[in-house]
Design brief:
The chain is of the alpha/beta class and 590 residues long. The chain is built from 20 helices and 24 strands. The strands form 6 sheets. It has a 7-stranded parallel sheet, sandwiched between helices. Strands 16-12-11-17-18-20-19 form a 7-stranded mixed sheet. It has a 3-stranded antiparallel sheet with strand order 4-7-6. Helix 9 runs parallel beside helix 11.
């Protein structure tokens, strides 16, 4: 496993306070055909925006750049070539020099010699965007212009994860559309525009009240009714109830969409949201924060590769190992685990059947994940030996090989309300719990505990712990949050309705969007009504339905089973997975 990029040390060069810090840091990435796009952008960008612009363009090592002179004719801002340790100041354009990569650290630009990985690819835009996201968070803006390849896609994900904004050049206006197309395919860009139309939108964004101040949590909290309407609308259209997500996270994402759409009043944004299905979809995805990468936290995966997974394979020779990659997003984590399990099987020559259930609430993310195609920028995350062994390079993408793809079954699953999987040997759920309130964290962790077989492995994100469920697990690695199940069962916990966890509702006029406990049994009543409704329509409107318990044991049959199920020869059984038609086995079992 390759280690993560190290942060540059703080030196004396960085100590003085920056005299004129910008309100926002605008990273602009371009490659082939990018010069015209860059010129079009700056010819329309006012010189007094208060922002700073760092241009990272792919340059030939022997190219004598005239960019300073060319851009100086397009803008009244100061245009300068970056030198090591240079402070970033407002209303200034910074250009990367040839043969160098650039990062930002505490508002200063750090140059390093350009190095190519084992595949021969250098990704200067990704390198800068990732550091920009880490250093500036909500003040970061990433812009992708014309270029070949997929440089910038990985960085775009980092910027959005940290709350920044992303703009991408409209494909039809780009001389080379591979870079814009790759970034757009992530579904993360806030704006897709021609370069000459970007400045007006960018200016509106950086000048918006929510973009120039700290979080407006108290102001939004006063709009309790508006927030309730948003939650109700999202639950109606996506079946996801965001009431139990952390208030700071929810408000930050709503506030960002208000800034993007130029609304200052929450009620006005709610009216806009109600009238625009596309905005409902965008906000839904923003709140889910579906950002991931291959072998994220390489040191953690190193431990899995060296000890945890080989032990699982050794102890289950001749058996099936069941893995649940929860909140899998676009699939990188599920495939990372599949690769490590395949490596372990090959080294031990053990005969083990590996079945990985990769689930997410976002159906679009599941569809993309099942395709197994990823941009070239994954070379920064996947070690070269594994890249060569488990991927095929086609066009601008890397495709997972068939043997690995067939190990993974992707399915839509709502971890909050859907029953958990059973008899699982390894659960991976990374960087999802941090967005939940403690009450929801506990419900999810109880579900994982219910799912895991005795001695099963729980793999969490680096900032997550089992919390109140700590007594149900042994810690295998404290830093990288790897735990082993003790096999202690908590009766009826896994399927307990959320209403029994004291549901909370947003209350306006309280600092920080305080939540208030209620004792309503609304959710339980909904379940009873639904049960009666299903039985009422069975036969006339619902030709066939079955009810099963946690162990897939048949409880009730509604309708004619002729086309769906068969009774196998021998002693009577009630396991539905052994009774359904062959082509229904995988979806039903999943």
């Amino acid at each position: 496993m390759s280690s993560n990029e190290t942060t540059p040390p703080r030196t004396k060069l960085m100590d003085p306070v920056i005299a004129n810090p910008p309100t926002h840091y605008i990273g602009i990435g371009a490659s082939a055909g990018g010069l015209e796009a860059i010129q079009a952008f700056f010819s329309h960008m006012p010189a007094n925006s208060g922002a700073a612009f760092i241009v990272v363009q792919h340059l030939s090592p022997d190219y004598k750049s005239l960019m300073v002179e060319l851009l100086s004719k397009q803008t009244n801002m100061e245009v300068t070539r970056i030198t090591d340790g240079m402070p970033v100041e407002a209303n200034t354009v910074y250009l990367i020099p040839p043969k160098k990569n650039v990062k930002i650290f505490h508002g200063r630009l750090i140059l390093t010699d350009q190095t190519h990985n084992n595949i021969g690819i250098n990704l200067p835009i990704d390198i800068f965007f990732v550091s920009l996201a880490e250093d500036q968070g909500r003040k970061a803006v990433g812009i992708i212009l014309s270029g070949a390849g997929s440089d910038g896609t990985r960085g775009v994900k980092s910027i959005k994860e940290k709350g920044g904004m992303v703009m991408v050049q409209e494909e039809a206006t780009a001389k080379f559309d591979s870079m814009p197309k790759s970034a757009i395919a992530t579904n993360l860009p806030d704006f897709i525009l021609p370069p000459d139309e970007m400045p007006s939108q960018l200016l509106a964004f950086v000048k918006h009240p929510y973009a120039t101040r700290e979080l407006m949590t108290d102001k939004l909290a006063e709009k309790g009714t508006g927030l309730t309407r948003i939650f109700a609308l999202l639950r109606e259209n996506s079946s996801i109830d965001f009431t139990f997500y952390k208030p700071s996270t929810v408000m930050r994402r709503i506030e960002r969409r208000m800034t993007i759409n130029q609304y200052e009043d929450l009620d006005d944004y709610v009216h806009f949201l109600e009238a625009n299905p596309r905005e409902q979809t965008v906000l839904f995805r923003e709140l889910l924060i579906g950002v991931t990468s291959f072998f994220r936290d390489a040191d953690a995966y190193q431990i899995l590769q060296e000890s945890i997974i080989p032990e699982l394979v050794k102890n289950n020779t001749g058996k099936q190992i069941r893995v649940w990659a929860s909140a899998c997003s676009s699939g990188e984590e599920a495939y990372s685990l599949a690769i490590l399990f395949m490596e372990a099987m090959q080294k031990s020559e053990a005969a083990v059947d590996i079945k990985i259930f990769a689930t997410d609430v976002d159906q679009d993310a599941i569809f993309r994940a099942s395709q197994g195609a990823y941009p070239e920028s994954i070379v920064a995350d996947v070690p070269a030996p594994l890249l060569n062994k488990y991927f095929m390079h086609k066009g601008d993408n890397y495709h997972i090989i068939r043997q690995v793809r067939e190990m993974v079954v992707f399915a839509q699953h709502n971890i909050i309300k859907d029953p958990p999987f059973t008899n699982i040997n390894f659960v991976s759920c990374r960087n999802m719990l941090i967005y939940f309130q403690p009450v929801l964290q506990q419900k999810v962790l109880e579900g994982f505990n219910f799912s895991l077989a005795t001695d099963g492995i729980l793999f969490l994100g680096s900032s997550e712990t089992p919390g109140e469920m700590d007594s149900f697990f042994n810690t295998l690695h404290a830093k990288w949050k790897i735990y082993r199940s003790k096999g202690i069962r908590k009766v009826a916990s896994a399927n307990r309705p959320l209403s029994q966890y004291e549901p909370k509702h947003w209350v306006g006029g309280r600092a920080g969007g305080r939540l208030e406990t209620t004792t309503t049994g609304r959710y339980l009543e909904e379940e009873r009504i639904l049960s009666r409704f299903v039985q009422t329509i069975s036969g006339n409107y619902l030709p066939f339905a079955v009810v099963v318990n946690d162990n897939l044991q048949l409880v009730q049959v509604l309708g004619d089973t002729l086309d769906y199920m068969r009774i196998p020869f021998g002693s009577p059984i009630t396991d539905i997975s052994k009774m359904v038609a062959d082509d229904l086995y995988i979806p039903v079992s999943t």
